[in-house]
Specification:
Blueprint (H helix, E strand, L loop, with lengths): L1 H4 L4 H32 L4 H38 L4 H26 L1 H9 L4 H16 L1 H16 L3 H25 L3 H27 L7 H5 L3 H35 L1 H17 L1 H19 L3 H26 L3 H5 L9 H31 L3 H26 L3 H25 L10
Helix pairs in contact: 2-8, 2-12, 2-13, 3-4, 3-6, 3-7, 3-11, 3-12, 3-13, 4-6, 4-7, 4-11, 5-6, 6-9, 7-8, 7-9, 8-9, 11-12, 11-17, 12-16, 13-14, 13-16, 14-16, 16-18, 17-18
């Protein structure tokens, strides 16, 4: 390991830290504030937690579409930046912002119109109280899609040129304001799920307005004008979609698989939904540093491929994998011993704590060897343009292992929520092994994007 790290110059470390630290802080706030929001809504009861959890699984499915297109924009911006073709960088950024926002508007309006049938079709087995709260939260979430899409697209473009500090500021504005507004509407005004819906719209559109102001008035790198964003450059959009659409399809089917899994869990009862939600919060907490590395890898590997430097792309990918695995070990050693004080934030009934702890323990152990090759590795492959392969592998592994195996373990063999999580961990290993084999070959870096 020491010999491997010796290949990096001091300047490499400084550049990586400059990119990584703002992304790490961003991820820490996103996950930490998400946990805080879950804890706050728990004061409104188990039904409220369950409603937010099932809607968020559907939100993740829908939001992943325009976030995936935004990732395509990040890759194209990074490769133009790495190649030295600076005049094309703002054109790629502008096309990413306009296309991502348009995707979000269409998806949001369609889902508001179909919210009732969608929730009853997917989660009709939930109790009437949960469904009623879920409808309120889902409509509010869909209305906010355009705001988060515009903000994410701007952040993605800024990360593509290495301006992760600016993207951090925009993300913090959105997420901190969301939490503060939740304190007001949930804890002070006691508006429950409706209050959370109001908060999410104010926070996301406020951040979107600030993102536009920053990118048009304050930014000194991209020099965008409002007409650049409004104008459609079909050739540039085509390049963005070449990377973004396979990833969007992957994310739709991947998160669609999570929705199917959520349907299993709904049939296990309201308590199982709450256990899954709290367990997911713990998982997100332990994955914060590694999730930040998977985002940073897109910029670093994308710029290396823009310079046509495959050896450098390989070097950084291996580095990210080792560091990510180390982070997962450290966070597991911190979070697991602190389980009882942390779980108390969610006020779960006493009878749920054992199942939550079992999930946290299994997940913390399994993700140390498996998470990085399953999530950091595909980010690197995708940054090189190998998006179709990564998408196909992710889709097949999700549906063949996580869903089928999750149903068998959770429902047929009656391991319940623990069986569903075991299947997810096994799927990471299968998918990661395939990505590692791909990385050792040559096909992943032979794509021409720019």
């Amino acid at each position: 390991m020491e010999r491997f790290l010796a290949r990096f110059a001091i300047g490499d470390y400084r550049a990586l830290l400059s990119l990584y630290l703002p992304i790490l802080i961003d991820q820490a706030f996103i996950i930490g504030l998400s946990m805080l929001n879950t804890a706050m809504i728990s004061s409104s009861g188990v039904a409220a937690v369950s409603a937010v959890n099932i809607v968020d699984s559907l939100n993740m499915f829908l939001i992943s579409v325009f976030v995936a297109v935004s990732t395509g924009g990040t890759v194209i911006v990074a490769q133009y930046k790495g190649s030295g073709n600076l005049p094309m960088v703002p054109k790629a950024a502008a096309s990413s912002i306009s296309s991502v926002t348009l995707f979000a508007i269409v998806i949001g309006l369609a889902m508001i119109a179909l919210h009732g049938p969608a929730l009853h079709l997917l989660f009709g087995a939930a109790s009437p109280d949960v469904i009623a709260k879920a409808k309120t939260y889902f409509i509010g979430s869909c209305a906010s899609y355009a705001g988060i899409a515009l903000t994410e697209a701007v952040c993605g473009a800024l990360r593509g040129i290495g301006r992760s500090r600016a993207s951090l500021v925009l993300s913090l504005i959105m997420n901190l304001s969301y939490v503060l507004l939740n304190v007001l509407f949930i804890n002070v005004l006691h508006m429950g799920v409706l209050g959370m819906s109001i908060s999410i719209n104010i926070a996301r559109y406020g951040a979107a307005l600030f993102a536009l102001y920053y990118i048009l008035k304050l930014d000194t790198n991209l020099h965008l004008r409002i007409m650049d964003i409004v104008r459609v450059r079909f050739e540039m959009v085509k390049r963005i979609l070449y990377v973004g659409l396979p990833f969007a399809a992957e994310q739709m089917f991947f998160n669609g698989g999570k929705i199917v899994t959520q349907i299993f869990i709904v049939h296990l009862g309201t308590n199982a939904i709450a256990v899954n939600a709290i367990g997911g919060s713990f998982a997100g907490l332990t994955q914060i540093p590694s999730a930040a590395l998977s985002i940073a890898a897109i910029t670093v590997v994308g710029q290396a491929m823009g310079r046509q430097n495959v050896d450098e792309a390989r070097k950084y990918t291996r580095f990210f994998l080792w560091v990510s695995t180390g982070f997962l070990l450290i966070t597991a050693l911190i979070v697991v011993p602190l389980f009882h004080p942390l779980v108390s934030l969610f006020n779960p009934p006493e009878e749920l704590k054992h199942d939550i702890f079992v999930i946290v323990l299994i997940n913390a152990a399994m993700q140390i060897p498996l998470w990085s090759i399953s999530f950091v590795m595909p980010s690197a492959l995708r940054a090189a343009g190998d998006s179709k392969f990564t998408s196909i592998v992710s889709l097949l592994s999700m549906w063949l292992f996580r869903i089928v195996l999750g149903y068998m373990l959770g429902i047929v063999f009656k391991y319940g929520i623990v069986g569903v999580w075991l299947a997810m961990n096994i799927e990471w290993g299968v998918r990661g092994a395939i990505f590692l084999a791909r990385f050792r070959g040559k096909k992943w870096y032979r794509h021409k994007l720019i």
